[in-house]
Amino acid sequence: MTAPEGGGDAARDALSRSPRGVGAPLRRKEDARFLHGRGRYVGDIRPAGTLEVAFLRSPVAHARLLGVQKPANGLVFTAADLTEIAPIRANSALPGFRPSDQPALASGKLRHVGEPIAACVAASRAEAEDLAAACVLDYQALPAIADMLAARAPGSALIHEHWPDNAFLETRRDEDLADLDAIAAAKVRRRLRTARQSMAPLEGRGVLAEWDPRLEQLIVTTAAQMPHVTKTGLAECLGLDEGQVRVVAPDVGGGFGYKGILLPEELVCAALAMRLGRPVRWLEDRLEQLTANANCREHFYDVTAWADAKGKLLGVAVDATVDAGAYSAYPFSACLEAAQIGSIFPGPYVLPRFRFHTVSACTNKPPILPYRGVARTGVCYAMETTLDALARQLGISAQAIRAANLVPPTAMPYRNLVGKVFDSGDYPEALRRAVAAVDVAAVRARQAAGETVGFGLSVFCEQGAHGTSVYHGWGIPFVPGFEQAQARFTPDGVLELRVGLHSHGQGLETTLAQVAHEILGVDPARVRLVHGDTALTPYSTGTWGSRAMVMAGGAVAEACRLLGERALAIGAALLQAPVEGCSLRAGAIHHGEAQVTLDQVARTWFRSPQNLPANVDRGGLDVTAGYRPDPDTGTHSYAAHAVVARVDTETGNVTLEQYVIVEDGGVLVNPMIVDGQVLGGAAQGIGTALYEEMPFDTEAQPLAGTLADYLLPGATEVPDIRIEHMETPSPWTRFGQKGIGESGAIGPPGAIVNAINDALAPLGAEVLDLPATPARVLAALARAGRA
Amino acid sequence: MKPAPFAYARPDDWPAALALLAEGARPVAGGQSLGPMLNLRLALPERVADLRHLPGYAGVTVQGETVRIGAGTTHAAIEDGAVPGRLGDILAGVARRIAYRPVRNRGTIGGSLAHADPAADWVAVLPALPGHAVALGPAGERRIPLAAFVLGVFETALRGDELLCAIELTALPAGTRFGHWKFCRKPGEFSKATACVLARPGAPPTAVLAALDAAPLVIADAAALLAEPAAEAARIAAALALDDPWRAALARTALRRAAEAAR
Amino acid sequence: MKITLTVNGAAATVQVEPRTHLADLLRGELLLTGTHLGCEHGVCGACTVEVDGAPARSCLMHAGACDGASVCTIEGFGEDAVMAALREGFSAEHALQCGYCTPGMLVVARDIVLRLPDADEARVREELAGNLCRCTGYRGIVRAILGVLAARRGAAT
Hints:
The complex is a heterotrimer.
Chain A: H1 8-13, H2 31-35, E1 51-57, E2 63-69, E3 75-78, E4 88-89, E5 101-102, E6 109-110, E7 116-122, H3 125-134, E8 136-141, E9 167-173, H4 180-183, E10 186-193, E11 206-212, E12 217-222, H5 227-238, E13 245-248, H6 264-276, E14 280-283, H7 286-292, E15 299-307, E16 313-323, H8 336-344, E17 354-361, H9 376-394, H10 398-403, E18 414-415, E19 421-422, H11 427-436, H12 440-448, E20 453-464, H13 468-471, E21 483-489, E22 495-499, H14 508-520, E23 527-531, H15 548-575, E24 583-585, E25 588-591, E26 594-597, H16 598-607, E27 622-627, E28 635-647, E29 654-664, H17 671-691, E30 722-726, H18 748-760, H19 774-783
Helix pairs in contact in A: 9-18, 14-15, 15-16, 17-18
Chain B: E1 7-9, H1 14-22, E2 26-28, H2 34-39, E3 47-50, E4 60-63, E5 66-70, H3 75-79, H4 85-96, H5 101-104, H6 109-115, H7 121-125, E6 131-137, E7 140-145, E8 150-152, E9 155-156, E10 163-170, E11 177-182, E12 194-199, E13 206-210, E14 217-219, H8 223-227, H9 229-239, H10 245-261
Parallel strand pairs in B: 1-3, 2-3
Antiparallel strand pairs in B: 4-5, 5-10, 6-7, 6-10, 8-9, 11-12, 12-13, 13-14
Helix pairs in contact in B: 9-10
Chain C: E1 2-7, E2 10-15, H1 22-29, E3 48-51, E4 54-57, H2 63-66, E5 70-72, H3 81-92, H4 102-115, H5 121-127, H6 139-156
Parallel strand pairs in C: 1-5
Antiparallel strand pairs in C: 1-2, 3-4, 3-5
Helix pairs in contact in C: 3-4, 3-6, 4-6
């Protein structure tokens, strides 16, 4: 049994290297049910008597709501009918933050297309939609704020009328950089935009609410990444005590941040279930998702950067605006992304001087949510394309300018000028390997022959599993603390693990079993994970921020270690040997040649207590342990992406020919699953780079209502990505593992657009805005006089 | 996303189908275009008439030089070689790039043509081929040249009391050259520009430019395009005066590339 | 309306509205929830089932069109050797994460294996274009299908 506090090379070297332990590419325990269609998602659960809800949603982006004429027959509920629901409040303690109340059902004003106005309730969804279609809305249209940069224009309509202008928050770091003009060898300024996206998990949101009269408890089964946070939010808004609310997240068909929110629809279904005494269900459809909930990624950057002749950065100034939408969503608030931009813009680089100003603009669009990578995808895009612009101006390579600025391994752990602490790693080595994996000379030869083909890079690091010390200052509705796990044996010796976060594709049923195997030697097949049910698991802020494997992994390891100590004591007594002479390995307590299995120990505790030693720990074979890395400033995984892209200058179409990722996630608990996370994230990043965009018209009407208009990358758009791993342990986590779940989605836009711009450079053209659609590529060529 | 209520009828013979049509029923074949519109409540028929069980609705028959493709023949059947000879090769190549295989297994050539979505593949290709659409109405069959069948966006030469029952094409000699190019960023996406050029031995080449949010542009004599693809494609595309420079570039490129492939 | 169809080899007679599509019929009436709804407009492929021996979008077949059809869902492939090999390959290649696209993906994968025994990677990717996965980046799915194809070719020689 290993019991170090964890971290660094020592933790890595102490690993058992068991084919079922930490580090093994163990096949997933959860696969069998999904491969046979036996997954159980919210939409698969329909208790007898369930009523279905369809929402009447706002057809306009900004209006005064004057009334809703309900159909003569049928159950239709408006805000006036459900006054027991308090508005959703996700305030931030950051100075200057302006709170917004988000009503579960609109009252008084309509602030974005798709905002729920009335709940229409019927025996089937089709009939509920019939009711919604029969409602007549009366409203007075107001001028819509469709563009974040116009949101604060003098005389603009006010979305929240008690505010002086349409902004949730501004943040800034002042530093006068004017002197750099005189000393810099190169200076570039770029204005860059990223598009509003839909996260588009394959399964939409879904809620089933029931009232249990026996327990006097509301049971909300919901596709949620953070069930305990949802529970707190439900209790607050419904005026219940938290013991009266149970949230169950069953199988969830993809999250990516889309399901890390307290939903107005959850509140409405809950209130209706309590009112009607019947199970009440709402299942989001794709039309709702696209038109009412395209809610992420829309940033604008105005970046100026100065460098010396070797490409070393002298300073960066960035003015960034994030389109935060109409409300502050619970729990992450409307300002998470914009405020994060200031702290992460320096990226993996040594930046000596830095000025930033950010605005969280309030617009008539759906409230922003953090999508996989959060602000990092936009920040990486802005930083990496700016670096390439500098390199082009200086006549040095993309590799050279990055090598000149990356934090060197000798500086680790490294604290940058805005206080971010990078734990470990060799960033320049990742860059070297990524470049070496691509035949850059061949690309240059093709360019010389006149082909519009290009090579692009991006390098970034990703803070994950950051905890109390980082979040307490934000003042949002939760602060992550000690992650807890419960480990206990059942009477037949099966190990049950209970964690409060949720696995929706990440494979935690497998990886946490690997952790348990690492500590106790138990067979992962005999480990059962209970997760995502607030009645059965310890509190957790849930699955977000690339934190599950660091936090729950650490907590499970600690709970198993303590459970092992208890089992060891019982086992030693059964062996009639002193505890200090016994050891726990391979699922048994050994003393010399003699052994008792953990199964026997469990059976003794539960079914033959007469054989227990007199001084046995009366807590039994059931341990809850808490874990938080120290320091808890987070792990930093990092990666270099290298891309070869070909541009068809007649159509503007871009083809990805090669894609290489060199990634360092510290010690990999399950390399197969890590690859899956990186690949899946990269596919989403390719969507951000080339395909995905929810256009809005000047009235803030979303224009892509189907997946034929909103293009998600398919098997033909995602190349066969090659991944190389480095494994620099984090010095601060239990096994040296790092959070890596979001990483793949961060790098692609920067690397891909850099490759496109490398291809277009001989033509003098440069793409600035995402996604780099064929139309935008042709427009860039036209600006350069080449189309 | 569930349809509004509608009634369903399954006529067993053509007179019954025409009678349902006269009563206002919406004809449906494979349902791969109407299905989404129903689910999205973009189509609100009171009744649909399912044509799939009509006699002779699906299947290919050859009589001399005439190949008759039942309107209910699926894209997948055509992809898999239901039509013989050089014509069959050409049609199979087009069919394979329609939407996705599970859609092609249900969707039909006649349903697609009668629906007349400007981005649809048959709408963009059939007008280049020698042949007719066969319409059946109360007065019997009527043959409409394929080049004149699609009149606009979702608009055809079918009269309100007629059903499209077959496509009749003339078999193509082995030496027929065919170029087809469409712009989709990914398979199955609605095309943003489609062109095809057909060059038969002993007949003037024909061409179609389609998927431009308008009726397909049929070029009855595309000899100039075949001779000078770049210049002629640019001239034809410019004459369309498209507002969007990207779509204009795609139109030009589609025509040129289709022509080059047909040379 | 009352319709009769064969589902996974057994006759089923159900009373549904004409507007009910096959996916809702399978899920709601027959409790076969392995067929998933992802878009209900034919693009995502999550609802793909086998109808009369060929893959079809169950979200685009309304009740009338189902009358008399023979349907096989992810729950119905029993001991089918190709499906068994695909399941094994999907697990070995980590071709699934959240599992939501998986049933539709498997139905299409089986069709690829049976219909296109010589398919290469490019063809497999083209044939998969109508099935979206938001989790995996497709590499595992493509590799799993190619692996089953290669094994069958090997067994045939």
